């Protein structure tokens, strides 16, 4: 049936756009996280953006205030788990979007800080849960020589010599102990501040780094939780980069680091599955955060168009500006829809896949980039100055096109996945 209206009134609108009505609980959570994003993350994020990477992580830095205040909010998986799945997805999405709206770098730092704890909870290991509780975590996977290569799941994706490179960090797995040597890349988010790492690396279980499987030569691997105060662990200089400067990143070095084998969360047989699960989780988190960052850019541009006069009136009065604002809002709605759908798939589908999450991360960040690009342009010369906040959001979003997997690579992986699904019968009926 058509829902008939007597008059044309303005549509229902929420901070997160054209939503069906939010429940009281959803509204309360949205309000709390929005206030936190507005009053804490956004001002502290701007402050941190202008500091050196060393000062960002120094004692007394606003970074620690942001992390401390975030911890007080109690935005953990237990909160989401109380709700029915569909509602949980919407709440998780709104939380992620609000945090990204406040500051994309801090949103990523807060998100990844809980990764080791969440993994410990997922495998149900109480010792590891206790070890990770209340700590800042990181997800260590990429290495200087293994960037895009660290996110491959099928042999066909490595074509040069038909096998995965071992990489720069390796584990020797003994009966009771694992010995780790090498380093992670300087890109590890929270790498320079984390107290505990969810770490993925190539592993030798006694007969080398490679094994023959039905899919050809495969690298042996291990995933484990590592307390980062063990003897032999050191850090590189915190990374100086253009975007998400509030997010501390840096190398982690391992020199004969001995870790009890019971800290492993996935040995060889479960390694790729575990990595895939973690990566699916991270990709959908990125989607919500960068929808929020794009929304921040849109809102700033919308306000500016109502303040700046050119051509005899406010910018917004010109039809061309309305087209540009409409384009931004359309893209924002599209990004949010993709972000939510991918989150629902990751949380509720019986069989998730990292490339299904990754395609959404590509779409959201590409749309976010287009939105912030247009917002920047609408600010004219002012957009290029550090006095206005839009240039920071531009830099923050630009980094997201590479973060959590470079977008071309992820899209190519999606094409490969489509081929596998086709060969498995998909679309043939
Ligand atoms: C803000 C940010 C946060 C990050 N956080 C983390 C984190 O928390 N933990 C972590 O482990 N890592 C993290 N990373 C690392 C990130 O996952 C990698 O940067 C990303 O996977 C790309 O790897 P790379 O930088 O080594 O680029 P490369 O893999 O060297 O790619 C460089 C270029 O080569 C192209 N290319 C690569 N492989 C191929 C190929 N086979 N065929 C054709 N072209 C190819 C790519 O498309 C790209 O344009 C982060 C990165 C950023 C920017």
Q: Which band does the percent of strand residues land in?
A: 5-15%
What coarse outline follows from CA principal-axis ratios? Answer: globular
Give me the strand/helix succession.
HHHHHHHHEEEEEEEEEEHEEHHHH
CATH topology of the largest domain: Butyryl-CoA Dehydrogenase, subunit A, domain 3
Q: How is the biggest beta sheet arranged?
A: 8 strands, mixed
Rounded to an integer in angstroms, the radius of gyration calculated over CA atoms is 22 Å
CATH first level of the largest domain: Mainly Alpha
Mean residue pLDDT: 95
Please give the share of residues in helix.
40-55%
What is the strand and helix layout of this fold?
Layout: H1 24-49, H2 53-56, H3 62-73, H4 77-81, H5 85-102, H6 104-113, H7 115-123, H8 126-132, E1 137-140, E2 169-173, E3 177-183, E4 196-204, E5 210-213, E6 216-219, E7 221-227, E8 233-235, E9 252-260, E10 264-266, H9 268-305, E11 309-310, E12 313-314, H10 319-348, H11 354-378, H12 390-400, H13 407-423
Parallel strand pairs: 1-4, 2-4
Antiparallel strand pairs: 2-3, 3-9, 4-7, 5-6, 7-10, 8-9, 11-12
This protein binds flavin-adenine dinucleotide.
Flavin-adenine dinucleotide binds next to β1 and α13.
What does this molecule look like?
It is globular and about 75 Å long. It folds into 3 domains: 24-113, no CATH class; 136-266, Butyryl-CoA Dehydrogenase, subunit A, domain 2 (Beta Barrel), CATH 2.40.110; 273-423, Butyryl-CoA Dehydrogenase, subunit A, domain 3. The chain is α+β, with helices and mostly antiparallel strands and 429 residues long. Strands 1, 2, 3, 4, 7, 8, 9 and 10 form an 8-stranded mixed sheet that branches. The chain is built from 13 helices and 12 strands. The model has no long low-confidence stretch (mean pLDDT 95). Helix 5 crosses helix 6 and helix 5 (85-102) packs across helix 10 (319-348). The chain has helices at 24-49, 53-56, 62-73, 77-81, 85-102, 104-113, 115-123, 126-132, 268-305, 319-348, 354-378, 390-400, 407-423, and strands at residues 137-140, 169-173, 177-183, 196-204, 210-213, 216-219, 221-227, 233-235, 252-260, 264-266, 309-310, 313-314. Helices cover 49% and strands 14% of the residues. A hairpin with a 2-residue loop joins strand 5 (210-213) and strand 6 (216-219). The longest helix is centred in the C-terminal third of the chain and has 38 residues, at 268-305. The chain binds flavin-adenine dinucleotide (FAD). Flavin-adenine dinucleotide (FAD) binds at residues 112, 139-142, 147-148, 151, 185, 187-189, 244, 399, 402-406, 408-409.
């Amino acid at each position: 049936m058509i829902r008939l209206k007597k008059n044309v009134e303005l549509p229902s609108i929420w901070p997160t756009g054209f939503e069906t009505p939010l429940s009281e609980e959803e509204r309360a959570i949205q309000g709390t996280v929005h206030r936190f994003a507005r009053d804490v993350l956004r001002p502290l994020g701007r402050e941190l953006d202008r500091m050196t990477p060393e000062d960002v992580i120094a004692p007394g830095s606003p970074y620690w205030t942001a992390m401390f205040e975030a911890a007080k909010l109690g935005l953990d998986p237990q909160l989401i788990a109380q709700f029915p799945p569909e509602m949980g997805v919407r709440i998780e999405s709104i939380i992620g979007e609000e945090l990204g709206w406040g500051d994309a770098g801090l949103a990523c730092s807060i998100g990844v800080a809980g990764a080791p704890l969440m993994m410990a909870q997922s495998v149900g290991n109480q010792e590891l849960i206790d070890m990770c509780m209340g700590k800042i975590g990181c997800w260590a996977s990429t290495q200087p020589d293994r960037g895009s290569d660290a996110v491959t799941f099928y042999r066909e994706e490595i074509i040069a010599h038909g096998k995965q490179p071992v990489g720069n960090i390796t584990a020797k797995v003994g009966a009771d102990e694992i010995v780790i040597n090498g380093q992670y890349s300087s890109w590890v988010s929270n790498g320079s501040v984390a107290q505990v790492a969810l770490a993925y690396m190539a592993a030798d279980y006694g007969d080398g780094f490679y094994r023959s499987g039905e899919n050809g030569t495969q690298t042996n691997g291990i995933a484990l939780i590592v307390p980062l105060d063990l003897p032999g662990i050191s850090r590189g200089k915190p990374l100086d980069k253009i975007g998400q400067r509030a997010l501390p990143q840096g190398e982690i070095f391992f020199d004969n680091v001995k870790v009890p084998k019971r800290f492993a969360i996935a040995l060889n047989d479960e390694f790729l599955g575990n990595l895939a699960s973690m990566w699916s989780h991270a990709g959908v988190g990125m989607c919500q955060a960068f929808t929020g960052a794009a929304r921040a850019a849109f809102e700033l541009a919308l306000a500016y168009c109502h303040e700046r006069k050119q051509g005899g009136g406010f910018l917004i009065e010109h039809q061309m500006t309305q087209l540009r604002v409409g384009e931004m809002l359309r893209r924002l709605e599209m990004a949010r829809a993709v972000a939510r759908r991918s989150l629902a798939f990751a949380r509720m589908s019986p069989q998730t896949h990292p490339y299904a999450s990754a395609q959404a991360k590509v779409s959201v960040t590409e749309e976010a980039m287009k939105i912030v690009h247009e917002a920047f342009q609408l600010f004219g010369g002012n957009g290029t100055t550090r006095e206005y906040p839009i240039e920071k959001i531009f830099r923050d979003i630009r980094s997201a096109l590479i973060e959590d997997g470079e977008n071309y690579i992820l899209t190519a992986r999606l094409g490969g996945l489509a081929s596998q699904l086709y060969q498995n019968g998909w679309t043939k009926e």
